[in-house]
Amino acid sequence: MSYTAWFECFNAECKERYELTDVIYNCRSCGSLLQVSHDYDKIKETSGGHWMRLFDDRKRHNIWPYGSGVWKMKEWVCPAVDNDNIVSMYEGESNLFLAERLGKKIGVPDLWIKLCGNSHTGSFKDLGMTVLVSMVKQIISEGKDIRAVACASTGDTSAALAAYCAAAGIQSIVFLPKDKVSPEQLIQPIANGALVLALDTDFDGCMKIVQEVTKDNTIYLANSKNSLRIEGQKTVSLEIAQQFDWEVPDVVVIPGGNLGNVSAIGKGFLLLEKVGIISKRPRIVCAQAESANPLYLYYKTGYKDYKPIRARPTHASAIQIGDPVSLEKAVSILKEFDGIVEQASEQELADACAMGDNTGMYTCPHTGVALAALFKLVERGDVRRDERVVVVSTAHGLKFSNFKLGYHKGSISNIKNRFANMPIELPASADAVQRAIDKKLSENRSG
């Protein structure tokens, strides 16, 4: 069958349509954000059971491009791209594991972690970037002049853009806030040949400039304002359902900064509902750092009084955003999914990382924000202890090694290292080693 998709104005009173190959980010008629819409009637001509069998079958094979967790669902994601123009690292298919020990500690034994950081560049951003860069390659193949693809970033978006553009042979340009990304994140776009611009501002300042620069239609905007990214990111919820044998959890907790992921994950679940694969929706929780919490403050007013803020420094640097681009879309999803917004302080997110790590995880600080928010919601009774909960882990903890080591050393200002576990320095003596081992094992037993 032939499947189609297009850009559509998010404003319900407008609904202007544009081609996916158009270089456009806002509606020309009313200025609203765009979203990718599909011919859902055509999709529904095939039964939900057939789609499940098709996606399950593709998952078992490695046939190009369906070995990718994103492109195995090509008809639902971006059917407009020719297979020859797909740029993929076989992203997605990240593991969903039962965090049994941590779940028991907080009283939610059915706690699962979706490790989206187990991807080519170490974050969920790969899921959206494979779609966006593939579409850019498609646009170029149709004769349009695209000189480069650009993004503002706090680290992970720039890494994904640089890697996928390098694979496609397209120049990338990344705008980073100077001295505000980890060394592990900074080296990724450098290594992949991006033009890296370190600006003396924060993410919101970088975002303003990249939007000015990309008014030149030969420089394509890759931030999540571009709704092509959302199509790849929505496969997180599709994968979660598939990994639970096409059922959905009760609660999904997502760290939120620019808020594209909230709208993406909600969009994926709505698609499953439209096709008839699921009959209930999970409750969506968006977790924000207390230092960068414009959505949380808006939520507390009942979504009646939104004010952008100047985000303060947070160790969850990828979500240090004071004026999120995808706010309107995220709020729409939260309303549809009985959503909750919660926040976490720097101490809470650091302790949550350490608690998760101590049970076998290796959490980035953004996942720490999600875990800390979950701990609060469980304590308050907003998340029941008998519910199945999935926390979306957005990046690999190895990208934040300085933060994690600083916590255990006790060298991070204003954060207590209550779960510290530093190496014990000893002389090269078997007796000294034995005494240290005995002491530790005795403490573990008594604790």
Brief summary:
The chain has 447 residues and is of the alpha/beta class. The protein has a domain at 96-121 and 230-409: Rossmann fold. It is built from 17 helices and 13 strands.
What would the keywords be for this entry?
447 residues, alpha/beta, Rossmann fold, six-stranded mixed beta sheet, four-stranded parallel beta sheet, 13 strands
Task: Write the SSE topology.
Layout: E1 5-9, E2 17-18, E3 34-38, H1 40-44, H2 48-59, H3 74-77, E4 96-98, H4 100-106, E5 111-115, H5 125-141, E6 148-152, H6 156-168, E7 172-177, H7 183-191, E8 195-199, H8 203-213, E9 219-221, H9 228-233, H10 235-243, E10 251-255, H11 260-275, E11 283-289, H12 294-300, H13 327-336, E12 340-344, H14 346-357, H15 365-380, E13 389-393, H16 401-409, H17 430-446
Parallel strand pairs: 5-13, 6-7, 6-9, 7-8, 10-11, 10-13, 11-12
Antiparallel strand pairs: 1-2, 1-3, 4-5
Helix pairs in contact: 5-6, 6-7, 10-11, 11-13, 14-15
